[in-house]
Design goal:
The complex is a heterodimer of chains A (112) and B (116).
Chain A lengths: L3 E4 L2 E4 L5 E7 L5 E8 L3 E8 L6 E2 L6 E4 L5 E6 L8 E8 L7 E2 L3 E5 L1
Parallel strand pairs in A: 2-11
Antiparallel strand pairs in A: 1-3, 3-8, 4-5, 4-9, 5-6, 7-8, 9-10, 9-11
Chain B lengths: L2 E3 L4 E5 L4 E3 L2 E3 L4 E8 L5 E7 L5 E3 L5 E5 L4 E6 L8 E9 L9 E2 L3 E6 L1
Parallel strand pairs in B: 2-12
Antiparallel strand pairs in B: 1-4, 3-9, 5-6, 5-10, 7-8, 8-9, 10-11, 10-12
Classes of the chains: A mainly beta (112), B mainly beta (116).
Chain lengths: 112, 116
C-alpha cells in the first residue's frame, strides 16, 4: 500500500523554467491538496480538489496551476518558476475531507 | 477566515520532562481538531484527532490532547518526553460547516527539541 506518492523528491530549477509535480494516491480518496512548507510559516494551502475534475484555490495560489484529470492524480504546475517558490511541497489526500489527511513525503524545490 | 495559533515557536526540554504545547483557534462553530507530527526530514503524520465526545483524546506514542471549547483550545500534552519526540508539531482545525469541502487550516508549528 503506497499511500501518497510524490515525484520528484528533489528538483533545482532556474528562474523562468516550468515544471510539474505529480501526486498519486492509491487509497481511492476524493480530496487532494497541495501545501507548501516554509520555515516559520507552517503549511500553506496552494490548491485543492474535492473530486475528479475539480480544483479550487487555497491561501497562496498565485504562480501555480493544478489539474485533477484522474481521481488518483493531482498535478501541481509552475509555469515560470521564481526564487520565491523555493520551498518544500507536500501533497495530501483524504477520503471524506473531514477525517485526517495522509501526506506524501514531499518535494524539495529550489529555484535559482 | 479561520486561524490557528501556536504560541510556542521552539520548545527545548530535557528528557523525562513534561510537555504541553498550546493551540488556539478562531472559529465560533463546531470544529474537528488535529495534531500532526513531522519528524526531521519526514512528512506529516497524524498524532491524534478530536471530532466529538470525551474532550480528552489519546493518540499514539503517549500523546494526549484536551479540547476546551470555552477557551477555543486544543493543547497537546505528554507526561514524559523522550529524545525521539524531537520533531515539529502542527495543530490543525477544520470547521464542520461545509462538510469535506473546507480544507484543514494549520498552525505555524512548534519545534520541539529534546535534549539528554
Amino acid at each position: 500500500n503506497a499511500g501518497v506518492t510524490q515525484t520528484p523528491k528533489f528538483r533545482v530549477l532556474k528562474t523562468g523554467q516550468s515544471m510539474t509535480l505529480l501526486c498519486a494516491q492509491d487509497m481511492n480518496h476524493e480530496y487532494m491538496y497541495w501545501y507548501r512548507q516554509d520555515p516559520g510559516m507552517g503549511l500553506r494551502l496552494i490548491h485543492y480538489s474535492v473530486g475528479e475534475g475539480t480544483t479550487a484555490k487555497g491561501e497562496v495560489p498565485d504562480g501555480y496551476n493544478v489539474s485533477r484529470l484522474k481521481k488518483q492524480n493531482f498535478l501541481l504546475g509552475l509555469e515560470s518558476a521564481a526564487p520565491s517558490q523555493t520551498s518544500v511541497y507536500f501533497c495530501a489526500s483524504s477520503y471524506t475531507g473531514t477525517d485526517g489527511y495522509t501526506f506524501g513525503s514531499g518535494t524539495r524545490l529550489t529555484v535559482v | 477566515a479561520q486561524s490557528v495559533s501556536q504560541h510556542n515557536h521552539h520548545v527545548i526540554l530535557s528528557e523525562a520532562a513534561s510537555l504541553e504545547l498550546g493551540c488556539n483557534y478562531s472559529y465560533g462553530g463546531t470544529v474537528n481538531l488535529f495534531w500532526y507530527v513531522q519528524y526531521p526530514g519526514q512528512h506529516l503524520q497524524l498524532l491524534l484527532k478530536y471530532f466529538s465526545g470525551d474532550p480528552l483524546v489519546k493518540g499514539i506514542k503517549g500523546f494526549e490532547a484536551e479540547f476546551i471549547k470555552s477557551k477555543f483550545s486544543f493543547n497537546l500534552r505528554k507526561p514524559s518526553v523522550q529524545w525521539s519526540d524531537t520533531a515539529e508539531y502542527f495543530c490543525a482545525v477544520k470547521p464542520k460547516v461545509g462538510s469535506g469541502n473546507t480544507p484543514l487550516v494549520f498552525g505555524k508549528g512548534t519545534r520541539l527539541s529534546v535534549i539528554a
